[in-house]
Amino acid sequence: MLNTTLLKKLTYGVGALALLLGLYGFYVRLFIGERDVNYGSYVVWGLWVAMYLFFAGISTGAYMIATLDYLFDIPLFKGTGKFALWGALVTMPVALMTIGMDLGHMERIWKVYVQPNFFSLLAQMVWGYTIFLIVIALTLWFTVVKPSKNTLLVKVLLSVGLFLSIFLSGGVGALLGVNASRAYWHVGLLPAQFPVFSLASGAAFMLIVVDWFLVRDGERRLQQIWVLSLLTVILAVVKVYFLWTDFSQSIYGGIPDNVRAVNEVMFGRYWWAFWIVQIFLGTLIPVIVLLQPKLAKADSVAGWMGLLVLIGFAAARANIVFPALSVPELQGLATAFTGPHLNFDYFPSLLEWSVVSGVVGLATLAYLIGTDRLSIFKAEASK
Amino acid sequence: MTNVSSSVNRREFLKSAGAAVGFLGALSAHPEAVIASVTEQTSAPNLQASLSSDIVMRMQVELQKALKKSVKERRWVMVIDLRKCVGCHACTIACVAENKLPPGVVYRPVLEQEHGVYPRVTRTFTPRPCMQCDRPPCTPVCPVNATYKNDEGVVVIDYEQCIGCRACISACPYGARTSDFGYTYTEGTPVADGLIIGQNVADDYERAKNFEYGKGYARPNEKGSPIGNARKCHFCLHRVKEGMLPQCTTTCIGRATMFGDANDLDSLVAELINKPNVMRLKEELGTEPRVYYLT
Q1: Contact flag B165-A103 (C-beta cutoff 8 Å)
Q2: What is residue B155's three-state secondary structure?
Q3: Residue B7, pLDDT score
Q4: Is A1 among the domain residues?
Q5: Mean pLDDT of B87-94
Q6: What is the pLDDT at residue A189?
Q7: Phi, psi for B75 (deg, rounded to 5)
Q8: pLDDT higher for A188 or A302?
Q9: Cβ of A32 under 8 Å from any chain B Cβ?
Q10: What is the mean pLDDT of residues B155-169?
Q11: CA quadruple A340, A343, A346, A347: dihedral positive or negative?
Q12: How many structural domains does chain A have?
């Protein structure tokens, strides 16, 4: 198996390559415009929105995991909190960057702060994320950079952060779920699922960090990996249960738009993303591997499984966003008028893939450079 | 039979001859009065009758009447008689021309559906403007209040306020909003002087301001909008304010689209929306559309 130095070098390399591939996308989107995307007026949200859900999930989930160390003082997780917090701090701006690219007028984002409609979930989320980012930074400051002796202050701060991480995760689900016109999204379960998805994302992310990048210093680390593995497995099974309740209810209910969206996920043009990426690679394989202590604790295996779970989650987010929008609101709408971006058949364009590659590279490099260069992580490295 | 017929013909002949003599006599005595009376009885009265029976003229008169009321007293509604729609798409094209809609942006497509099995087949045409819902799902989702119901009950968009998040497009159950990605119809066409005008002159038309919301937006302009914005049908408010019917209503060759103030109980639209064969799209969602269909 690969040692931590080699794994880190490999991750640096992949991150740099991903960022390089993303430069094209950043340039086109920022200096030329939005025309080369494949989402449009019918499938209004595409890969970038799915990736925003994905990164926001990692950020809020990583914060939840950090509370195991700083809020609940669980001895086993001592020392892992700052790595989780740094992950939360790095992935949230990346999530916002991805969703920002999706705006027709990103230069007007300030209006959400100055002239908000607080009834809109989107406005609530923008404000919520901003406050959350500040809370993450403050938490890092008072727990790691300049540890505060006022434990009450730190606990209150972490409680607020934990509440926000749950509220914002659920908010993402509600953002989609409040659309009564989209039968596939408009189920009460949707907002309830997302905090679970976030926690699962956070656990998978920490599996990678603990297994690949932290010093391999014996039994305690293996115990951390084992507990994170079990947490990941349990949450993966809960996610499958959510899928079952969602899909079975839709199919038994028989509401045509809902059934069409479910069929699109399972048997449509993205069947492979569901069955192969989300279910087989992202759920089945990690569950089987992580349930076996010897395999889970073997060098770098748990990290690979964490990566698979995250890839599965990325596919799952896409499978929530696209199919609901691929069902025409009215019969005959698809062919009533033709033109650019008037299409219910969506597949991300090169520009969209490029931007996603860029933000993945950016997040990866930012995380690694931070943990390698920032003084707060130096002690851990030397230990 | 031959005899009877001859006798009738003879009688008719004598009657016509007598009338002709009488007419000529009167014509020589009072020529102007006779011509005036003939004109009155033939062409002029028929033309008048034809005009007054055209529902567009009636709606025009009713529109003038509604405009005299205060803004909040009006209730603009549209009625579309599906039995009269022939699927010519003239309304779609007229709307594109009126609002200078670029490729990919459409306010009023006509949905076509085929029903039945050959040889018993039929087609239905459903024009779909914005429903101008009284409980619109698209407005509360806007993070910056860029889209709202105005005082006249029409759902409008403030192009300078819109951040282009497309949440409103996603929320609309009727697919009535589209996003402007900044295309023009003339791009990609030959730039060299054309036989008639060539692209350089032809696309002046596309760049010139439209009249939406009474402001007018050139393409492109320094603020970018409406490129990057969500766009939608607004019942041609800019025309209505000037006393003109929405372009789709004026253009409908089958007189299938009616527009007016439903608060005027004598108006055509008020009369029609109380008929038993009226329906609204996706009524079950409770959005209370202001577009009614006659089936």
Answers
A1: yes
A2: strand
A3: 45
A4: no
A5: 96
A6: 86
A7: -135, 95
A8: A302
A9: no
A10: 96
A11: negative
A12: 1
Structure confidence by residue, pLDDT tens digits, A313-336: 999 999 999 888 998 999 999 999
The two structure tokens encoding residue B202 = 């032809």
* Secondary structure (3-state) at A120: coil
What are the residue ranges of helices labelled H in A44-185? 47-70, 81-101, 110-114, 121-140, 151-177
Query: Are B165 and A116 a contacting pair at CB < 8 A?
Result: no
CA distance A223 to A259: 44
> CA-to-CA distance for B222 and B230, rounded, in angstroms?
18
A243 within some domain:
yes
Q: Which of B103, B166, B175 is facing A45, going by the closest CB pair?
A: B166
The CA distance from A239 to the nearest CA of chain B, in Å, is 26
Compute the count of residue pairs across chains A and B with CB atoms less than 8 Å apart: 150
CB of A123 within 8 Å of a chain B CB? The answer is: yes
Q: Which residues of A touch B181 (CB under 8 A)?
A: 33-35, 40, 340-341
Of the ranges A15-24, A72-81, A263-272, B3-12, which is most confident?
A15-24
Burial A264-276 (b: 16+ CB within 10 A, else e): bbeebebeebbee
Residue B259 Cα, gap to closest chain A Cα (Å): 23
A111 and B161 within 8 Å at the Cβ level: the answer is yes
In a domain, A208, yes or no: yes
Closest chain B residue to A33, measured at CA? B181
The residue length of chain B stands at 295
Domain limits of chain B? 2-50, 55-294
CA distance A53 to A362: 17
pLDDT at B266 over 80: yes
The answer on pLDDT for B113 being more than 90 is yes
Q: Is B240 helix (H, G, I), strand (E, B) or coil?
A: helix
Q: Is residue A259 part of a domain?
A: yes
| Chain A residues touching residue B113 (CB < 8 angstroms) | 331-332
Q: CATH number for the domain including A123?
A: 1.20.1630.10
Residues 186-225 of B with CB under 8 A from A: 224-225
Average pLDDT over residues A222-249: 94
Is the torsion defined by CA of A371, A373, A374, A380 positive or negative? positive
Q: What is the pLDDT of residue A378?
A: 74
Q: Which of B144, B169, B181 sits opposite A111 (nearest CB)?
A: B144
Residue A67 sits in which domain range? 15-382
Task: Look up residue A213 and give its amino acid.
Answer: F
pLDDT (tens digit per residue) in A150-209: 889 999 999 999 999 999 999 999 999 998 888 888 888 889 999 999 999 999 999 999
Residue A382 has pLDDT above 50, yes or no: no
Q: Mean pLDDT throughout A208-232? A: 90
CATH of domain B55-294: 3.30.70.20
**Nearest beta carbon to residue A104 from set B141, B183, B228:** B228
